[in-house]
Every structure is written in C-alpha cells, then in structure tokens.
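User: I've been trying to design a sequence by hand for this structure and keep getting stuck. Would you show me what you'd pick, starting by listing the structure so we're on the same page?

Assistant: Good idea, let's start from the same input. This is the structure you sent:
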C-alpha cells in the first residue's frame, strides 16, 4: 500500500500535480484523479446516507460498501494494483437479488424522492454513475482492471433498489413519473 500521510499540508500539490500510491505524480485534472475523486465523493455521500435511521442490517451492509469503495480508490491510486475481487461483485449481486425480491415490479419510471433516506440513496446512485463514467474514461486512456467499473455499475443498481426499499420502510411508495 502507498504512503500514509503523516501531515496533511505538504505543499507538494501547489504546482497542480498530485502523488499516486506508486510514488508517481500526475496533473490534478488527470482522468485517474477524476475517478479517484468521484469514488471519494460517492463514499462521502454514503456517509451522509448512513447518518439517517436505516435498518441495522442495511447500515452494516452500506458500511461494508464504504470499505470496499476505499479499496477501490486505493486500486485507482496505485496503477496496476488490484483490490476489488469477484467476491465483492458477487456480494452486491446477492444483495440486489435479496432486496429486489420483496419489491413489486416497476411498471413506470420513478423519480428520485419519497423519504429522505430514499432521496439520499438516489443521490448516492447518481454520484455512483458519475464515478463509473470516470472509471470508464480512465479505462479508455489507460489499462485498468474491469472489476472496479463492474463494482460501481452493480453498486448503482443496489442503490436504486435500496431507495425503493427505504421508501417502503418509511411507509411510502415510489414516486412515479407522470407522462404529460
């Protein structure tokens, strides 16, 4: 694993560059830095969601996701390093299947909203999609592992399903899009 910061203000980034976990430096507008930042923002948004009253099992599951996102950020920070595994992806697939099993089928698009926790899950979902796009953009420029992109794709699906679950837990329903 890369160097840990012993002090926060180093001034090494004052020139517009930042250090990666392998010791190399890249411009702060590099696609790798965008991807790392978007994953970090997603993790922060999940932290906000975790401040809401959530079912204890869901809280524990999302806390575990935060740790995986930190791993994913580490993988992005160290070119050629792998931390996300097929097991992590399988865990998300199982969670999606479990939570989705209790939901009625969708017959219409839904709008982000309903209860506050559901709305925050939707915000996390949209930030997750942006992080996924950033990882895709990085992958079009450099060779990276497939699993981080797949993990983010699956996580956005889970967050969509959790928003629906959270609306029901709050006694509400999905906010349906009305055509015209």
């Amino acid at each position: 694993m890369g160097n840990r910061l012993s002090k926060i203000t180093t001034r090494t980034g004052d020139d517009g560059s930042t250090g990666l976990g392998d010791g190399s430096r890249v411009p702060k507008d590099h696609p790798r830095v965008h991807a790392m930042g978007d994953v970090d923002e997603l993790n922060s948004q999940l932290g906000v969601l975790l401040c809401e009253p959530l079912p204890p099992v869901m809280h524990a599951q999302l806390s575990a996701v935060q740790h995986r996102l930190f791993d994913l950020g580490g993988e992005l920070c160290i070119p050629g390093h792998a931390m996300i595994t097929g097991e992590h992806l399988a865990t998300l697939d199982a969670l999606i299947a479990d939570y989705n099993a209790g939901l009625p089928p969708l017959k219409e698009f839904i709008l982000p909203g309903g209860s506050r926790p559901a709305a925050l899950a939707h915000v996390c979902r949209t930030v997750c999609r942006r992080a996924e796009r950033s990882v895709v953009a990085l992958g079009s420029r450099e060779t990276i592992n497939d699993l981080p992109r797949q993990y983010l794709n699956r996580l956005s699906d889970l967050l969509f399903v959790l928003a629906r679950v959270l609306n029901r837990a709050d006694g509400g329903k999905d906010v349906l899009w009305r055509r015209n």
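That's my pick for every position. To get oriented when you compare it with your attempt: Helices lie at 31-49, 56-77, 86-101, 116-141, 147-169. The chain has a mean pLDDT of 91.
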